[in-house]
Amino acid sequence: MTPYQNASQLKELTLGKKTDYTSEYDPSLLQAVPRSLNRDELALNETNLPFIGEDVWYGYELSWLNDKGKPIVALVEFRFACTSPNIVESKSFKLYLNSFNQTKFTSIEEVKACLEKDVSNTSGSQAQVTLFPVDKCPALEIACDESVCIDALDIEIDNYQFNAKHLQNSQTHSSSIIEQNLVSHLLKSNCLITNQPDWASIYISYKGKEINQEKLLMYLISFRQHNEFHEQCVERIFCDLQQYCQLEALTVYARYTRRGGLDINPFRSTHLTNAPWGRTLRQ
Hints:
single chain; GTP Cyclohydrolase I, domain 2; 2 domains; two-stranded antiparallel sheet; about 20% helix
């Protein structure tokens, strides 16, 4: 259990509680979770973070009515800077998007303006919102990725509790500096509140001494019974890799499978600000 799992800021969330669905536009449904909760545990200074990046969300079930009452559907992309004070709690996000279903809007621009205003207010900083037609969304084309998949490594696992110490002595003693792009599709964590499983592909790109792939895979698998929100898991992975491997450059990007019409894709890097387009097959 993380030390902030019973934090007072989490007790008022609708997550894990029985809730009613509304189909009339209601921005008050959105709920915020302070990023500081797990960052305090990771000893991260909010004014001097060791990474830059963003959280990218895709909504697959957005619909509203035009001024004649005809339903309109779209795909929506949300981008939140990792420096925003809050993350948007995902269940409240789903309830909020559902509230558009039977609400009339005069134009797609009006819908975009509402979305941008509401999620920006909740996250505490300006969010970027893009709406796409459901039959033409370049952001959600299957990505062609050339990362080396480490999942076929023949390792033995007998403990599924989180253990950052798997990364101890995980680098070769060679002084050679390499650049490497790795991916594992075995990342699984659990929701901090409900314990529901969260599944993801995790992309790790780094420059530094070579990381032992077996140790890295054991570390990633140790998240299997770990309870944290998506964004928090990615920041923990980034910080652990930097602590144990002292890399010259690092990017960690998780693409989580969707739940309730939303997928969440946290992106943290020493040098890259924006996450790339392109979803995985599982998304």
